[in-house]
Amino acid sequence: LALLLNRRYGPTETQQRTQRILASLFPPFILKLFPIMFSGPFPAFSAKLNALITSKTCVWLMGPQELFDIDRQEMQQGWGDGVNQGILIERCRYLEESGCASVCINSCKVPTQSFFAQDMGIPLSMEPDYDTFECRFKFGVAPKQQSQD
């Protein structure tokens, strides 16, 4: 599916379509209420909660993963202490199977970061390693600009 999206559409359209797919996995009321009831008033808790839930529910897609601590220097102010706010995907199945950096960027990294920021109200930085197929999710850390990434 990801390869087909990337072949058929340009980067921006692929990113938007993928973000809509992610949003469709949640009941609309959750996406509407989560920023109001959780990420707005309780940002640190929300970042830790999403790291934990993502680490438990996405093994089937990305492969084995574990929580890790993020350096406090990287954290956005108010988004927590970094303890257990990162996920290390040891060897991302999605990245490895696609074998393509642009597929990773356009149908995973950018839309997932955008989904968490825009729909859940949580900053997320994703750092794929194209040599080892590792990927680090950092909840509470602003993503780098695409031009700097």
Describe the structure.
The structure is a single chain. With about 150 residues, the chain is of the alpha+beta class. Helices cover about 50% and strands about 10% of the residues. It has 7 helices and 4 strands. It has helices at about 1-10, 10-25, 30-40, 45-55, 60, 95-100, 100-120, and strands spanning about 65-70, 85-90, 125-130, 135-140. It has a 4-stranded antiparallel sheet, with helices on one face. Helix 1 (about 1-10) crosses helix 7 (about 100-120) and helix 2 packs across helix 7. The chain is globular. About 35% of the residues are buried. The model has no long low-confidence stretch (mean pLDDT about 90).
Beta-strand fraction estimate: 5-15%
* H/E series: HHHHHEEHHEE
Gross morphology is: globular
- The span between the termini is 25 Å
Strand order of the largest sheet: 1-2-4-3
Question: Mind telling me the C-alpha Rg?
Answer: 15 Å
Indicate the mean pLDDT: 92
The percentage helix is 40-55%
Major sheet: 4 strands, antiparallel
Q: What is the structural class?
A: alpha+beta
